Amino acid sequence: MSTRNQVLKLYKMLLRESEKFESYNFRSYAVRRVKDAFRENQNLGNGDALKEKISEGHKNLEIIKRQVLISQMYKTDRLIIENMSRN
User: Where is the Complex 1 LYR protein domain (predicted)?
Assistant: First the structure.
């Protein structure tokens, strides 16, 4: 698999997993942070720095998965903004 495809696949997985947060604030922060991180590093060449960032992305994916699971275990009441946006 080419590096470009690896990066795109990682990006999609991070966004999908970030959308699973129960809390609106955590969900919007995670999605924004993923987009910002990829935008910030879009000009990395095909080198060791890129491989390091891909590895870091996979570690962050595991962290997000863990945090999503925790957020699903300990749910809180929905915010007013969530009720408006989901209807």
Answer: 6-62
Low-confidence residues of the chain: pLDDT under 70: 1, 83-87
The confidence score (pLDDT) of residue 65 equals 96
HSE-CB of 32 using CA atoms within 13 angstroms: 6
Q: Are 67 and 17 a contacting pair, CB within 8 Å?
A: no
Tokens 């947060």 correspond to 21
CA distance 68 to 13: 13
Separation in Å, CA 76 to CA 17, 23, 63, 81, 85: 19, 8, 20, 14, 17
